[in-house]
Amino acid sequence: MPAAPPAGPTGPDWEGVRLHVVTGKGGTGKTTVAAALALALAKEGRRTLLIEVEERQGIAELFGIAALPYEERKVAGGRGHGEVFALAIDIEQALLEYLEMFYKLGRAGKALRKLGFIDFATTIAPGLRDVLLTGKACEAVRRRRPDGRRVYDAVVMDAPPTGRVTRFLNINTEVAGLARVGPIHNQSQAVMRVIQSPETAVHLVTLLEEMPVQETVDGVADLQAAKLPVGGVFVNMVRPPVLDQAALLAAEDGHEEELALALTEAGLGGRRTAANGGGPGPTVRKLVGPLLAEGREHAARVELERAQRADIQGLRLPTYELPQLPGGVDLGGLYRLAAELRTQGAA
């Protein structure tokens, strides 16, 4: 269950937060969590936009649809008739859009693409790439309809991994030597006003394993040092407990005779008669060793997870746990995870 934060957003909706940046160590399922969060936020008629910035088409794969073009498309309906739209940002098209918007290059911009200028520009000036990616998300946050209402109630960004997210979001540092005046400078300033505002929260996804948890702890410290708004911690793929505390202790201690007798009492392998000595039979005896080995392994994993939970709780951030889904994640699984997030207060 989520732990209440000492300060920051309150209430089940992260009230006031409109840009949810989701990051995490590779392999923790950050794209899955981002998609589930977008579904969870799309409730009671709300509209959310799920943005992918790494050009992996992970969103399309999760929702079981064709590769997303560079346009916002509806991918699912949330509970309560809400809607989820998705956008996979194509960096080349985003730069062309930017050149047209600020420099009115039009066909010249397309010619630059053919000449390889786009790759050249984003390679020698990586800060420009980050301005384009974050700028697109912030524009969606600010966008309004003709009647003044927001186009999207929330925007969820599937961001780069934890080790790169602070640099990715802290674009002021990246563009400082690139442009001190002009459209790029102005764009970066506008983006940072959104990212550093109470409208934004950077959530971190982890597993109950040593390396992902340590990267989460380090990531929180980096974000806080850069004065970027830290959100919650999403513990993904949590396995349910198999043994109670007494059974775990028994597994650790290796009570072979007690286990053999219990298996015999349960009718496994049959009981030897008084004539041949009584007690557990040979079938049961063969099972005891492997079962105890599995029990000890499970007990060690539970102890490790307990220690990792303690490290996460030490961050004093809202924490949410999502179950491991048997058979992988499909659209039905995403809706189940979204329901878990609502139940736990994340949306």
SSE map:
Elements: E1 19-24, H1 30-41, E2 47-52, H2 58-63, E3 73-78, E4 82-88, H3 91-103, H4 107-114, H5 117-124, H6 126-142, E5 154-158, H7 162-169, H8 171-175, H9 183-195, E6 200-206, H10 210-225, E7 230-238, H11 245-253, H12 256-265, H13 282-313, E8 319-323, H14 331-343
Parallel strand pairs: 1-5, 1-6, 2-4, 2-5, 6-7, 7-8
Antiparallel strand pairs: 3-4
Summarize the structure.
With 347 residues, this protein is an alpha/beta fold. 49% of the residues lie in helices and 15% in strands. The longest helix has 32 residues.
Structure, described:
It is a single chain. The protein contains 14 helices and eight strands. The longest helix has 32 residues, at 282-313. The protein is 49% helix and 15% strand. The protein has an eight-stranded mixed beta sheet with strand order 3-4-2-5-1-6-7-8, sandwiched between helices. The model is unreliable at 1-10 (pLDDT under 50). The protein is elongated. With 347 residues, it is an alpha/beta fold. The chain folds into two domains: 19-239 and 324-340, 3-Layer(aba) Sandwich (Rossmann fold); 245-300, no CATH class. Residues 19-192 form the ArsA/GET3 Anion-transporting ATPase-like domain. It comes from Streptacidiphilus jiangxiensis.
